[in-house]
Amino acid sequence: GTWVYTFGDGKAEGTGAMRNLLGGKGANLAEMSNLGLPVPPGFTLTTELCNWFYANGRRYPDDLAAEIDAALAQVAALTGRTFADAKAPLLVSVRSGARASMPGMMDTVLNLGLNDETVVALAQSSGDERFAWDSYRRFIQMYSDVVLGVEHHHFEDILEDFKERKGYVLDTDLEAADWRGLVSAYKAKVGEILSKPFPQDPREQLWGAIGAVFSSWMNARAITYRRLNSIPEAWGTAVTVQAMVFGNMGETSATGVAFTRNPSTGENALYGEFLVNAQGEDVVAGIRTPQNITEAARLAAGSDKPSMEKVMPAVFADFVRTTQRLETHYRDMQDIEFTVERGKLWMLQTRSGKRTAKAALKIAVEMAAVGVISRDEAVARIEPSSLDQLLHPTIDPKAKRDIFATGLPASPGAARGEIVFTSEEAEKLRSAGRKVVLVRVETSPEDITGMHAAEGVLTTRGGMTSHAAVVARGMGKPCVSGAGSIRVDYHAKTVTSNGVVLKQGDVITLDGSTGEVLRGSVPMLEPELSGDFATLMEWADGARRMKVRTNAETPLDARTARKYGAEGIGLCRTEHMFFDAERIISVREMILSDDEAGRRAALAKLLPMQRRDFAELFTIMSGLPVTIRLLDPPLHEFLPSTEAEMADVAKAMGTSVDKLKRRAAELHEFNPMLGFRGVRIAIAYPEIAEMQARAVFEGAVEAGRVTGKPVTAEIMVPLVMTLAELDLTKARIVAMAEAVAKETGVTVPYQVGTMIELPRAALLAGEIAKTAEFFSFGTNDLTQTTLGISRDDAASFLGPYTVKNILAADPFVTLDQEGVGQLVEMAAERGRATRPTLKLGICGEHGGDPASIAFCEKVGLDYVSCSPYRVPIARLAAAQAAL
Ligand code: ADP
Ligand code: MG
Ligand code: MG
Description:
Elements: E1 4-8, E2 11-12, H1 19-34, E3 42-45, H2 47-55, H3 64-79, E4 82-83, E5 89-90, E6 92-98, E7 109-112, H4 118-126, H5 129-148, H6 152-166, H7 176-194, H8 202-216, H9 220-228, E8 237-243, E9 254-259, E10 271-276, H10 282-285, E11 291-292, H11 295-301, H12 308-311, H13 313-330, E12 334-341, E13 344-352, H14 357-369, H15 375-381, H16 387-390, E14 394-395, E15 403-406, E16 408-411, E17 414-420, H17 423-431, E18 436-440, H18 448-453, E19 456-459, H19 467-475, E20 479-481, E21 486-489, E22 494-497, E23 500-503, E24 507-511, E25 516-519, E26 524-525, H20 531-543, E27 547-551, H21 555-563, E28 569-573, H22 581-592, H23 596-621, E29 626-629, H24 643-653, H25 657-667, H26 679-684, H27 686-707, E30 713-717, H28 723-744, E31 750-756, H29 759-763, H30 765-768, E32 774-777, H31 779-787, H32 795-803, H33 820-834, E33 839-842, H34 850-858, E34 863-866, H35 871-882
Helix pairs in contact: 4-5, 5-7, 5-8, 6-7, 14-15, 14-20, 15-20, 20-35, 21-23, 22-23, 23-27, 24-25, 27-28, 34-35
Binding site for Mg(2+): 757, 781
EC number: 2.7.9.1
Cofactor: Mg(2+)
């Protein structure tokens, strides 16, 4: 059909490759059906229909009803049940499914087609009256919530009141007649709230549910999720309508979710949870604590609830075979939803499973090792930014552990912060620069923003596949779920466990790898970078063309970057070395001097310190290239700001506070970003550049003696706009190089290059390359100067720009390829036309952003340079860009 694709009985109109049209869920149901796996028959309404729906004022095309009728007839033929029939009614689920998985973002309606008549037929055909009425009350509750906007709690209140009156504790205490009574009460409640009865006509129910799924594409939750995950609105969602199978038909029925490998560790073992006599989301909702699927997992978890392997061995064996088949077919770890109806297995969903970075690495490396995928595929499968998770600290094993409670190790890594109970509070404290741990009974999609703001998440209910666990793993946030000993009191803002009470604001530490919740702030360890990580990075390095350098000026950063595989320093910001307590006085002396002689005197004091700095960096980088940028920021940044500081400096320098203030006033600028900075300082006070150049060459001589390796020094002149600026500065540098060579008898190989960070420099790159031996694109300033946006002032207006889709992304995070990118590309071309050996790199924040790195590969840069912690991310991103 045009809008409808059917599946079931070993065939399907769609395939797994059609996820753009059928959504991930619909495409994989079709694929599983084509594979001959037991999939309840059904049909998928396409994402194109969703777009049509929105383009036409939330209406449907005229030919849709006939297509749905035909598809329903086909399902009827396969199941022997007819939709809306009073004798043998077909019940269906109505499921949402976008191209990209959006877990829990949109709503599913189960048991649709039930009404006062069909419920009786269901009771008769199943021979289980309790089951039929239980299904009906679930339907009323879900449908009312999702389609009619009558919230859950209305029904939960009725149920709780009823149980209390009857002295029941568990839902399983209720009998058929009890549920029947509740159905009447539920319907009455809906009627009362909406002033019209609960819809009895299955067709009306179906259209209502379809409309609700399409409409959910535009609900606030979905919009937020799309924004956080860069999913275009234009993709739309598909809707799948599928014959119901029942996991709540007694003790031989069950429902569950499973991963073909452990999503936390990557271990190659079936991993999952299920519940006997339950339906749909019961497992993930955390209402009952689920059981393990395999006996091995049960033993490892120390659970006293029997595993699926134990209670239904035949179905279990069938299930294991099916999951293996799916993993082999898809060549990736699968996340599977299934239901067992009276001893028969039904597959309800499969998709590539979300996993932690650690698991992703293990799975990719193992699959490549056995040849299921190639090494390049393994490299391509790891999301570069996810490596961040591995670079997270873990709890120091030697640290004292004051255990407050223990839950499930739902998402690895350690996190610590103040306890907060709501998303609002989490966001508020986060923006005040504080670290928080979000504590909830369970989380729902409304908590996404709070989870983002928190360092980690703790829930008292729910398993390894609960919402909190799935979302936290996706975000790379440590999470402990199902910590059952904890009682949360949202009103009093306290958590209690084993008699210990903690309040909001108290600090706790989560160990997402063991499930422990510890009191206080516990010491942490830096991550281990061997094993699968090292293997995959080696493969990535083999695939990559661009070099990866780091932005570093301290020995610690330089060492960290080397450990993470940096191949040199792409940007050493010398000004950071000027703030050091022991030298800031000399720096200020230099700035405050009235004449060159005074400045030179102060610079002479700074020289040995700078020489030491550079010698140390060259030594650590041991023969790798090091790019040193001459002093860049406006001088006034070094002046004291408070009265007390002023007085201190004046005293130390034997000058007056008044003089200091006068000089500070002279140096004041209205727009320092475009002021007296960069090469302009070297032009006005060449002696500063001379001192720095001398320190570089003397430091290089020293380091060469220590390491025995020749140092390649690259001196970089910032904020150049004309060739003349560069020529003048270069002459000073060359003179210094010659002087030092003469004095020491050692000639240091060096290059002089420039940053391209002004549009004029990009335009005149061909000219500038006559002198410059390398270009480094300073894309932070180049973005500021091209867009005319001050990065430090952008926060107040850039937010709405991204929300309103005016800019695809924050241009200071991801390079504006359309605009700034043109300048980069043009400057690279013009520069190379003049000087074919011109070395090209990038050293803005963009050097560590995967999308921007892909662009750098495209325009043929030689290297990217980024902060030490992003070096592994850049290595992987550069490899993926080259594949
Ligand atoms: P989500 O995208 O939130 O996972 P699903 O559409 O997968 O939503 O539905 C949630 C759960 O509802 C499924 O995991 C499954 O347990 C249950 N479910 C959906 N359709 C059916 C069906 N036809 N028969 C039985 N259970 C179903
Ligand atoms: Mg759901
Ligand atoms: Mg699902």
